[in-house]
Write a structure and sequence with these properties.
This protein has 8 helices and no strands. It is mainly α and about 250 residues long. The protein starts with a helix and ends in a 13-residue tail after the last helix.
């Protein structure tokens, strides 16, 4: 019983619902053996009582010593009583941990849904902004207006970032160190968000280009030619084909 008492009092550290469910399953298997152990205990006590009756019948001192065993019936009963007290305590501890891990799993899935959605939104915005910036058929005024619309949309989307960071704070407070449901972390989202803000900040550069164009008298057709030339030589090509561009 000493081993059982140690097992019932062992501290456990788990990080998932599956791990705590495995501990609960093992504990239930242990509980299933208790009736058999109790029968064995009662059998031992019956043998002890028979020995006591035998000693009394023949006038032998009841304080007999068993050279094969040092534990007494009283100690055996005390240990059994302790095991019976520890079992429900272990039950409660495992169920409490199961509830905590279920909450943690819900937090993981909630963060996963937000992170994946926000990351996709950032990537889509980035692609649309970059496409708008190289659109040869758009005027600078059109580009500036589009960028300002994106800027307003990005600012309005900020509460979603705040919500995700709030959930991330709960995850940290809950000591959750991994999330197998998503490859994205708060740091990844923050970097993407900052990059998106930097990209949309091109509105200032576009306004400068408009001012320069008006000052220098550059036509829209000339700007389109400059833009086409830049896009042509700014392409990323394999090294083996670089000489074909020149």
């Amino acid at each position: 019983m000493d081993g059982a008492m140690e097992d019932l009092q062992d501290m456990f550290i788990v990080h998932s619902v599956e791990e705590i469910q495995n501990l609960i399953s093992a504990h239930e298997q242990f509980r299933a053996t208790l009736p058999k152990v109790d029968n064995e205990r009662q059998a031992i006590l019956s043998i002890y009582n028979e020995v006591q009756k035998f000693a009394h019948s023949y006038g032998i001192s009841p304080n007999l010593t068993n050279i094969y065993c040092t534990i007494t019936p009283t100690e055996l009963s005390l240990k059994w009583d302790k095991v019976k007290r520890l079992v429900p305590q272990r039950d409660n501890a495992l169920q409490e941990e199961l509830s905590r891990q279920q909450v943690n799993e819900q937090l993981r899935k909630q963060f996963m849904a937000q992170a994946n959605l926000i990351r996709h939104w950032i990537q889509t915005c980035m692609e649309e902004i970059l496409h708008s910036s190289v659109d040869a058929g758009a005027t600078l005024e059109d580009q500036m207006n589009q960028l300002k619309q994106y800027e307003s949309m990005i600012i309005n989307y900020k509460p979603n970032i705040n919500k995700m960071e709030g959930d991330h704070q709960l995850i940290q407070e809950s000591l959750i160190f991994d999330n197998e449901h998503t490859n994205y972390t708060t740091e990844h989202i923050r970097v993407g968000w900052e990059l998106l803000l930097m990209t949309v900040a091109r509105t200032i550069k576009t306004e400068t280009q408009i001012l320069t164009r008006n000052t220098k008298g550059i036509s829209q057709q000339q700007l389109n030619n400059f833009r086409s030339s830049f896009s042509h030589f700014n392409r990323v090509t394999p090294p083996s084909h670089e000489h074909q561009l020149y």
